[in-house]
Amino acid sequence: MWRTVLLIGFGGAIGSIFRYLTAIMVNKYYASAFPLATFITNVIGCFLIGLIVGLLEKIQMTNPDLKWFLITGFCGGYTTFSAFGYENIGLYQNNNLGIAFIYMGLSIIFGLSAVWLGLLLAK
């Protein structure tokens, strides 16, 4: 059990670092009221989880350690659903309801599409 906990923690740490680097890069080139860095991070994370699951199924990977490390650890540390919720509340509190609804809708559409694309590419 502790080995699995450490694998998830290590994967989560790496995912969190990549999330930070993604935000730095996006915010360096794009500044707007729309939370673009979180949106892009979540779409990439959705794509990666689809791709990883698809590839692991394709090669019939049965090693649970790799799944825990990549899916729960890395993807869990990389994606930012809690930030998504917090940012939407902030948009609401600042009377940016239009941006909030656009952000929610696009996140759902692009997130699900990215998972589907990742699964498709893995096949």
Could you explain how this protein is built, in words?
- The protein has 123 residues and is an all-alpha fold.
- The protein has one domain (1-122).
- Helix content is 85%, strand content 0%.
- It has helices at 2-29, 36-58, 64-78, 81-93, 97-122.
- Helix 1 (2-29) runs parallel beside helix 3 and helix 4 runs antiparallel to helix 5.
- The longest helix is centred in the first third of the chain and has 28 residues, at 2-29.
- The protein is globular and about 50 Å long.
- The mean pLDDT is 93.
SSE inventory with pairings:
Layout: H1 2-29, H2 36-58, H3 64-78, H4 81-93, H5 97-122
Helix pairs in contact: 1-2, 1-3, 2-3, 2-5, 4-5
In summary, what is this structure?
This protein has 123 residues and is mainly α. Helix content is 85%, strand content 0%.
